[in-house]
């Protein structure tokens, strides 16, 4: 770090009040509270901090970007997965490999212990 670490305090702590944010509907607030439960404090504030940069201004910009990205990812609705069948070729290949493995192990047994 150098002397800059000891001389300046550039850490930024952003506290976003999720309960009083007018930009979200009540349904969106419920989704956000559910998905961000580990980042919210008891009063409903979302805490985001940054101290990576040497400049406090850059850290402020970084925390705002983190907030926007976090809110955007939390509100994104995942598409439901379409159930699909395992292709027949994959099943046959697995069974073929299984037979080869079994034959290889069978050849390792002692000649007199082979069941014929």
Keywords:
116 residues, mainly alpha, Double Stranded RNA Binding Domain, two-stranded antiparallel sheet
List segments where confidence is low: pLDDT < 50 over at least 5 consecutive residues. Answer: none
Fraction of residues in helix: 40-55%
Task: Please tell me the CATH architecture of the domain at 4-75 by its name.
Answer: 2-Layer Sandwich
- Our Rg estimate from Cα atoms comes to 29 Å
**Portion in beta strands:** 5-15%
Structure notes:
This protein has 116 residues and is mainly alpha-helical. The chain has a domain at 4-75: Double Stranded RNA Binding Domain (2-Layer Sandwich), CATH 3.30.160. Helix content is 46%, strand content 10%. The chain contains four helices and two strands; from the N terminus they run αβαβαα. It has a two-stranded antiparallel sheet with strand order 1-2. The N and C termini lie far apart (74 Å).
């Amino acid at each position: 770090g150098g002397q800059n670490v000891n001389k300046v305090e550039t850490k930024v702590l952003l506290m976003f009040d999720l309960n009083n944010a007018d930009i979200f509907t009540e349904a969106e607030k419920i989704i956000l509270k559910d998905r961000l439960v580990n980042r919210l404090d008891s009063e409903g504030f979302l805490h985001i901090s940054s101290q990576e940069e040497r400049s406090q201004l850059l850290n402020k910009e970084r925390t705002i970007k983190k907030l926007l990205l976090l809110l955007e990812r939390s509100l994104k609705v995942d598409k439901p997965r379409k159930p699909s069948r395992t292709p027949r070729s994959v099943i046959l290949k697995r069974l073929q490999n299984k037979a080869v493995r079994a034959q290889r192990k069978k050849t390792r047994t002692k000649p007199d212990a082979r069941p014929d």
